[in-house]
Design goal:
With 85 residues, the protein is α/β, with parallel strands linked by helices. It contains four helices and three strands. The protein has helices at residues 5-13, 37-47, 63-68, 78-84, and strands spanning 19-21, 52-55, 73-75.
Length: 85
């Protein structure tokens, strides 16, 4: 997972197929990590040169927001289980 523009640049240099950028929102598992928020996430994704998925507090309802901001999709565990569970 990437957490800053430098991480995204390294992922690009490694020629990976995609990156996961997190955390967009606060999560129980990483409560001490400040979330990026949509504005920062969108700015970093706009400058990325590879497909980027959003991670951190994501739910199915966030998919349209991610795509509107240029992201590829969402990555989630809790948000998906609660949607289908």
């Amino acid at each position: 997972a990437c957490h800053n523009p430098g991480d995204l640049a390294r992922a690009t240099a490694l020629e990976v197929d995609f990156a996961v950028l997190s955390p967009v929102r606060s999560t129980p598992g990483h409560a001490n990590v400040p979330p990026l928020g949509w504005r920062t996430w969108a700015r970093w994704v706009r400058d990325a040169r590879l497909p980027v998925y959003a991670l951190g507090g994501m739910q199915v309802a966030d998919l349209n927001t991610v795509r509107r901001f240029g992201g590829q999709g969402i990555a989630a565990i809790r948000g998906l289980w609660s949607s289908y569970g």
